[in-house]
Design a protein that fits this description.
Largest sheet: 5 strands, antiparallel
Number of helices: 7
Order of helices and strands: HHEHHEEEEHHH
Strand content: 15-25%
Structural class: alpha+beta
Number of strands: 5
Strand order of the largest sheet: 1-5-4-3-2
Radius of gyration: 28 Å
Shape: elongated
């Protein structure tokens, strides 16, 4: 007589397997990203470790004739400023994700402020003299990485990447905690460590807020 025995996996085993997979894959996916945010957290907290920024570069440029037509500036100064910004981007590497314009009609002066991670460019377009005073500042690689850590002047794409990273790190953290729970021998010690970390964080937060 043939007999067979089929052992079905418990529902909790399936959940644990899924959680373990999520934990492993998110850790591999976020390895470099977590290193980046960890190291830049240190550099952000200790900016005094690094040398001061160099002096900004200043250039006085003639405004091309095609961009210095007074009637066009009177009609639409913002459109003309955008044309000047594109010219500066092509010829003088004025790059950045955050651009603002300030038009002073009385003095015929347009100020173009372009910010990017780790630096900025400021252009004063003087229509009366048909010239551009351009100031460019670069704070260096560490400042660039620090700005990327904060998502400052980095644009929508990088902002979306930070959101995605945050979700992946949240999954990594929660699945790690879940995987600790079934480990009877280590569970108490590991949860105690987790509570200790939470307590230190909470105490530091209250100390900063209340003092």
């Amino acid at each position: 007589m043939n007999q067979s025995l089929t052992v079905r996996p418990k529902k909790s085993s399936k959940v644990n397997r899924l959680v373990r997979l999520l934990h492993v894959y998110t850790s591999m996916l976020m390895l470099l990203v977590m290193l980046f945010f960890t190291l830049t957290g240190l550099t952000l907290n200790h900016r005094d470790w690094f040398a001061d920024a160099p002096a900004p570069e200043r250039l006085e440029l003639p405004l091309p004739q095609m961009l210095a037509q007074p009637e066009l500036w009177r009609e639409d100064p913002l459109a003309q400023a955008e044309q000047v910004r594109r010219w500066l981007s092509r010829e003088y590497q004025v790059l950045g994700n955050q651009v603002s314009y300030e038009w002073e009609a009385d003095s015929q002066l347009m100020v173009i402020d372009v910010k990017r991670p780790g630096g900025y460019s400021l252009a004063e377009v003087d229509l009366e003299s048909a010239s551009v005073l351009l100031e460019k500042q670069t704070y260096g690689a560490v400042a660039t990485l620090n700005d990327l850590h904060m998502g400052r002047y980095s644009g929508a794409l990088w902002s979306g990447f930070i959101d995605l990273s945050a979700v992946a790190m949240l999954l990594f953290t929660l699945t790690g905690f879940w995987l600790v729970l079934p480990q009877k021998k280590k569970r108490q010690r590991l949860i105690s460590l987790s509570l200790l970390g939470s307590g230190l964080f909470g105490s530091a937060y209250l100390w900063v807020i209340l003092t």
